[in-house]
Fold this sequence. Notes:
The protein is of the alpha/beta class. It folds into 2 domains: 8-216 and 377-382, Rossmann fold; 225-348, Alpha-Beta Complex (Aspartate Aminotransferase, domain 1), CATH 3.90.1150.140. The protein is built from 12 helices and 10 strands. The strands form 2 sheets. The chain has a 7-stranded mixed beta sheet with strand order 3-4-2-1-5-6-7. A 3-stranded antiparallel beta sheet has the order 8-10-9. Strand 3 (76-77) and strand 4 form a beta hairpin. Helix 4 packs across helix 5, helix 6 (225-234) crosses helix 8 (311-325) and helix 7 crosses helix 8.
Amino acid sequence: xxxxxxxxxxxxxxxxxxxxxxxxxxxxxxxxxxxxxxxxxxxxxxxxxxxxxxxxxxxxxxxxxxxxxxxxxxxxxxxxxxxxxxxxxxxxxxxxxxxxxxxxxxxxxxxxxxxxxxxxxxxxxxxxxxxxxxxxxxxxxxxxxxxxxxxxxxxxxxxxxxxxxxxxxxxxxxxxxxxxxxxxxxxxxxxxxxxxxxxxxxxxxxxxxxxxxxxxxxxxxxxxxxxxxxxxxxxxxxxxxxxxxxxxxxxxxxxxxxxxxxxxxxxxxxxxxxxxxxxxxxxxxxxxxxxxxxxxxxxxxxxxxxxxxxxxxxxxxxxxxxxxxxxxxxxxxxxxxxxxxxxxxxxxxxxxxxxxxxxxxxxxxxxxxxxxxxxxxxxxxxxxxx
Length: 386
């Protein structure tokens, strides 16, 4: 494919890095922070003579991406660069004043996945807050929304349901880039506007595989663009007793549980005529996470037309169909503090309560239309790409 897009990292370096010239910087990144030749932002900024990279900040999964979902990250020293690594996914999730004291700027370069409940968005928000607290320059090196920047879907985050899997009052599929999210957060929280190094060549209708940029999996459980495409919907299964495919080679494409008849489930889902996907009955055995070592019946969700697909609506149909298989075995997971995981993922308890009242998946999807329209209005002033 012909190369059509340059990331914010590449634009920064091509411009001679004048923005950060003479500055001591900290970098928030992970394996997705690469240029078009797959060279790491850590290496590129560290070897750039115009600035001094003095610290790294690790989001969920770590600077090098080796940690599984939910695993705490420790403060450490990066073996390759020798730089100190400050954890942003452990006891501390917001950069401390002490960690920022030696910096002139903190730079954020992570590939998002296009869904509100990805924790990189929460890390971005807390980085902006921390920088504003002490007057440190915040710089976001922008990257594409992999699911395009046009489609917006799903209910917004309701008051009282904020968590680390949802800090923005935005629909589940928000249609923004990290730079645009940073601008929105700053405007709505009354923070100084961060400096965004915009991409060159990105258009809102582009999916990631149309950019010419190299694909690096953004987390251990999102290995492919198909998985990311389904993630705004199939991640909702994470809030239930059903496996979302973690511990398999197809996380977020496989869903199932030991008590599910895969052929009955595939027939139910197929009869719903959900646009853009087909369902194949499968058995699988997760190696870790839910139902580890136990054979599960379920389906693999195959994306056949991503333009027609509405992944959040798909997720609602999945939940209704999974629950109808055996309402006694299906259950809602709760955190250690008693909060329902599905409420935090969906951003409200409306989904859980409505399902318990017997509403259909189509009714549930239609209920979010007002949230999407409101967000479309709110985001208009922060768009960087038209």
